[in-house]
Amino acid sequence: MTMKENILIVEDEFIVGNDLRLMLIKAGYAVCGIAASVDEAKAMIERNKPTWVLLDIFLLDGSLGTDLAGYLRQKNIGFIYISANTNQSILEIARATRPYGFLVKPFREKDLLIMLDIARYKHQNNLQLSLQREQLMQKQLQQIIEAPFELTDKIARIPDVLQTFVPFDYLHIAITGKKQHTLEELSFQRTGYDEYEQLDNIALCKTLGLDRNSILSEKIAQLQNEKGGYLNDAEFRLWIADKTWEGKLGNHLRLNARLAVAVMLPAGNIAVISFYSRNADTYTEEQFTLLGRMENGIRQLLEQVQQKYDPLSARIVARKRVEKPVIDNDNLFEGIVGRSPAFLSVLHSINMVSAAPSSVLILGESGTGKELIARCIHKQSPRKSKPLITVNCAALPAELIESELFGHEKGAFTGATDKRAGKFELADGGTIFLDEIGELPVESQVKLLRVLQEKEFERVGGSKVIKIDVRVIAATNRNLEKEVAEGRFRLDLYYRLNVFPVELPSLRERKDDIPLLAQHFVDKLSEKLSRNVTDISPDALKALRSYDWPGNIREMEHVMERSLLMTIGTVLKQIMLPKVVTQQVGTTISSSDGNRIKTLEEMEIEHILQVLKSCKGKVCGVGGAAELLGLPPSTLNSKIRKLGIKRDFHFKD
Amino acid sequence: MCLHSTFVNAGAGYPVYAIAGIVLLLVTGIVIWRQRWRHHQALDEIKSLRCKLYEFDRYLGNITREKDWLIEETHHRVKNNLQMAISLLNTQYTFLADNEARQAVRNTQHRMFAISLVYQKLYQEDALSTIDIPRYISELLDYLKDEYEVDTDIDFNLKTVPLKLDVTLAIPFGLIITEAISNIFRHAFTGREKGSVYISMESNNGRHYKLLIMDNGVGLPVSFDPYADTSMGFMLMTGLSRQVRGTLHIYNDNGVTVVLDFLNDGRLPENL
C-alpha cells in the first residue's frame, strides 16, 4: 500500500461495523470511525476527512446509504456499498450513484479486501484519466493561444478542443463588451465528428423569432449573474422555462442539458461558455471541475478573442463553414461510420480511454460493432504494435474455456496431448478482447478476476505462476446487473471490468446514420461483389430508415449485400428487407424499453395478445386466433393460461 | 249480460280465435320479453362477475407481489442476521489466542457460511424457496478451497446431475458437504504432495439420489468409529443425514468414502 487509506464505515449494526473495523486494521488500513446514519457520516467526514467510505445501504433510522453518494462524489471520496440486498433494482439504484464497488452480505475478509483493491484500482484509474485529460486540454488550449493563426482560425478551433472534454451539440460563448450594454457572442452548432458550423447570432435570433436588441439586456443581466454549473434533463427544462432566448433555443435545437462556466476577464468583463447537449444526462461534476481547473487557459484564450474581436470579420467566418482540422479521422476510426450525436459521444470516449491502460467494458446489442470498437481502441493505444487477441466466450464450451484462456500443460486432461499457451499468454504486452463476457461460466470468472487483479495465472494442470501484462477489453450484449442479481456473474468481476464502460447505441437509436452507413456499404460491397452500384434511390433510403433493425449494423450489412446482388444498373432501388409479421397484425411491438432484447416468452405473449386483439378475442373457429396461429384451440388456451395472459381487455366491435 | 251475449253473437264465432290469437301473441311476447330480459340479466350478471373476477385477479396479483416482497424482505433480514452472527465469530476469533479454540471458531464460521450461501443462492434463483444444488456445491467447494490453504495439490472432480432442493433440505445438505470436505482438507492428505477428490451426485429415477464424496488420502484410523459421536463433524453428518431422510455410509476405500443416499420427491420432511 503506497498510502495509508483512511476509511469511514457507515453501518448501523455495531457488531458488523466493528468486525469491518477489525478486518481493515488487520489489513493495514486506518479506520476513522463508524457512523450509524447518513447525518452522522457527514459530520464524521467533515471532521476526519476519510479517503474511503464503506457504505451500508439500508440504515436503521430510515436513511439510505445511496443518499450520501452525491456528497461523497463532490468531495472526491471513493465509496463501496455493503448490502445484503442484491436484487436488480437495488443494484441499478446503486449503479446510478457510480460507486467503486459493492460488497454482498454476508461477506468474508477476503471479499472485502478484494473489493477494496478493485475500488482503489478504479479510483486510481479515474484519477489518472482525469489528470491525463487535464494535461491534454491544457496543451491543446496552449497550442491555440500560442499559434500564429488569424483570430478567425483560432476561433474555429475552439469547439473542437472543447468537444473532446465536454461534449456538446451547441456551444455558446458570450463576453460582455468593452462598451456598456454590448455583448459579443459566438455560437457553434455541431454537424459532424469534428465539424461545426458557426452560427450568425442575428440570423439565429431571427430563426428563433426574436429580436436581438430586445433580449440583449436580459442576456447581459443573466451573464452577470451566471455562477456556472450544470443542469441535466428535468432540471434543465425547469431552468429554461422562464428564459426567453434559451427557451426558444432549447426547443429549436431539441436541447436537454447545459453546462456553463463563468470566467472573469481583466477589464472587469465577464465571459460565459455554455455547452448544450441533446443528450439528457451528458454533464457531470467531473467535467465542471475540469473546466474550473482550465480557467487560466480559457481566460487567456478569451482575452485574445475579446481584444481582437472584430464583428465584421466574424460575420465573414460565419458564412463559411468552419474548416476541418488536420486530424485524419478515417484512419483514426477505420471502418467506423456514423455522425449522429449518440455515436459521436462514443467515439469521443474511446478516443479518451485508448491511451490509458485501463480495462474497457463495451456494452451494446449484438451487431452494433463491439469488436470494431475494441479493435479501434487497441489501434489507438500505445500497445498497437503488440497483438490483439479476440476470444468469443460464447463460442467455447465451458470445459474448454479455461484451457483456451490460460493454456494447459501436457496431460492436464484427456486430449491434452501437448502443452499449449493460452490466449492471455499470446496477448502478453498487447490487448485481449473478451467478447460475450456475460457467457463466461462462473467458475472461470474467479480465474479471470485473479488475472485482472494480480496480472498472473497458472496454466490448466500446471503450477507455475505466469506473469503477464495484458489490457482487457470485454464486451457483452447482456444486462450484467441482471446477471449479477441472478447469480450468473460475479459482482466483484463486474465492478472490476466496469472501470470504463462504453455503451454503443443500437442502430434504431442512431437512424440519422443510416444514409451514411448505406453509402458506406454500397461502396464497400460494390467493390467486394464487383458490381458497379454507386448510388441509392431516395425510396430505398426511406425503406432503410423505416425498418427497426433488430440485428443492428450486422443485419444492415447483410441486407445491403442481398439487395446489391439483386440490383441491375448503378442505382440501388430495392431493399430486400425481411418481412415483418407484426406490421400486418396492427400495432407494432412497443420498443419503449429501447435496447433490451425481449425473451422468447415475452415475444410469445405479445404476439398472442396482438393476434387475439385482431380476432376481437375469438380463440376458436374460423378466423379465430387459434386458426391464425396454426394451433389447436386447446393448446392455445393452455398457452394463454401458462403465459399468464389476462384477457382483461374488452373487444369492442 | 245482455251486452256480453250481443258481443259474442255479433262476432259470429271468430272473435274467439282473435282473442286466442291475441292471447297467444301476448304470451309469446311475454315469453320472448322475459327471455330477453333474462338474457339481459344474465349478461349483466356475467359483466359484473367478470368485473369481480378482474378485481379478484388484481387482488391476487397484489397479494402475490406482497408475498414475494415479504419473502425477499425476510431473506434480507436473515442474511443480515447471518452477517451479524458471522461478524460475532470473526470478532471472537481475533480475541482468541488458544489454537484449538481458534480452530473451533473457524469451523463454526465455515458452517455459518454454508448456511448463508444457501440464502444467497435462494435469492438468486427464480423460485424463492429452492436451491440449484450443483451450483451450490461448486461455490461451497470454491469457498472451502479458499479457506483452507493447504500445501497439498488437491485435484477436485465434480460431477452432478441437475437437482433443486427446498431450503429446508438444502441447509442440512450443505452442512453435510461442508463437514465432509473440511475433513478432507484437515486430515486426508496430511504429509502428501498430491491428492484427488471425487464428488458426484447421481440419480437413476429423479427421486433417489446418491451423493458420493471420495478421496484417495490416508483414510480413517483403523480404530476410529465414525458413528460413535466422538467427533462433532461426524456427529453432525449422521444426524443431519437422518434429518434429510437419508442414510449415510462412511468407510475406508483407498481413502475415505462418504455416501449419502436420500430421497427427494418434492415433499418436505415436516409434511411426511
Please tell me about this protein's structure:
The complex is a heterodimer of chains A (653) and B (272). Chain A has 28 helices and 22 strands. By secondary structure, chain A is α/β, with parallel strands linked by helices. In chain A, strands 8-7-6-11-10-9 form a six-stranded antiparallel beta sheet, sandwiched between helices. In chain A, strands 2-1-3-4-5 form a five-stranded parallel beta sheet, sandwiched between helices. Mean pLDDT of chain A is 82; it is low at 312-330, 581-595 and 648-653. Chain B is 61% helix and 17% strand. Chain B has a five-stranded mixed beta sheet with strand order 2-4-5-7-6, covered by helices on one side. A two-stranded antiparallel ribbon of chain B has the order 1-3. In chain B, a hairpin with a 5-residue loop joins strand 4 and strand 5 (208-215). In chain B, helix 2 (15-94) packs antiparallel against helix 3 (99-124), helix 4 (133-147) packs parallel to helix 5 and helix 5 (167-188) runs antiparallel to helix 6 (232-243). The termini of chain B are far apart. In chain B, 24% of the residues are buried. The interface between A and B is medium-sized, with 28 and 31 residues.
